[in-house]
Amino acid sequence: MRRERRSIETVYRTKYSGFCGWPKLLKTVKNIRNKETMYLFVGIFLTGGRAMEMPTLVRRQIDLDFSDTDIMVRAMFVEKQRTKEFLKEDGKFILDEKGNKKYKSIPKVAYRDFPIRRDNPLTPIFEEYVEKFNDDNDTLFPYTYGQMNYRINLIGVSLPNGYYEKGWWYYAREFGEWWIHRIRAERACQLRRELRYDQQDLMQYFGWKTSSMASEYATMEPFDLIREGPIKRRGITESSRNK
């Protein structure tokens, strides 16, 4: 049986439930032995970038001198902005077996500008990393999708001798606490909890086209964001959420 995808709706909601807190986050960062992996973790958290968005960031997009209180990230690529093009034949819409119009999803070029507060505990690490690059066109995170997942998913995981039989991904899924989407979710919950970002703020920060994802965080109550265990909100049960 295929393993359940580790998404917001499944594992993150039911197991981790909101922002883990700065002590946990800082301890995680401190214990990452590989420095490049540490910088990648911090970069994903502060930018809220997806795996396919992080390799597009270059030095000139990070304005370290924007203000005394904030760093500014400019024109960060947003991967999942897409538009629908409905399919037609002889001037008529093509329908599927349920009578819905068939369509193809077309990537839409989109970008986002957003600040990173200097008083964020992880910001000094990010600044230290960015300052290593001298050329404005230097890529900050020159990794493939697989390389990023390998680095992040194995944080805190020890691979046994002969792990090749099952593969590193098996051990990451069984024993790993971190994956890229979880880091993004932690950032969204932190922005909501500490800076009181509302739905529109979150949409702008992450470049979300619709409000569905933002509303997952913007409608949380404060106690939902800090307690351990699954979040339970009015009208939503664990069984209905996981269907």
Write the layout of secondary structure elements.
Blueprint: H1 8-16, H2 22-30, H3 35-47, E1 62-63, E2 70-77, E3 82-86, E4 88-89, E5 92-93, E6 103-107, E7 111-117, H4 123-130, H5 145-153, H6 168-175, H7 180-195, H8 199-206, H9 212-218, H10 222-226, H11 238-241
Antiparallel strand pairs: 1-2, 2-7, 3-6, 4-5
Structure described in brief:
With 243 residues, the protein is α+β, with helices and mostly antiparallel strands.
Report on this structure:
The chain is 40% helix and 13% strand. It has 243 residues and is α+β, with helices and mostly antiparallel strands. The strands form 3 sheets. Strands 1-2-7 form a 3-stranded antiparallel beta sheet. Strands 3-6 form a two-stranded antiparallel sheet. Strand 4 and strand 5 form a beta hairpin.
Instruction: Let me know the average pLDDT.
Output: 81
Low-confidence stretches: 1-12, 223-243
Q: What's the main sheet like?
A: 3 strands, antiparallel
Distance between the termini: 17 Å
Provide the CATH architecture. Orthogonal Bundle
How many distinct helices?
11
The value of Rg in angstroms is 20 Å
Instruction: State the CATH class.
Output: Mainly Alpha
How many domains is the backbone divided into? 1
CATH topology, by name, is hpI Integrase, Chain A
Work out the number of β strands.
Answer: 7
Helix-strand sequence: HHHEEEEEEEHHHHHHHH
Neighbour order of strands in the largest sheet: 1-2-7
Multimerization status: single chain
Helix content: 25-40%
Shape: globular
Based on secondary structure, the structural category is alpha+beta
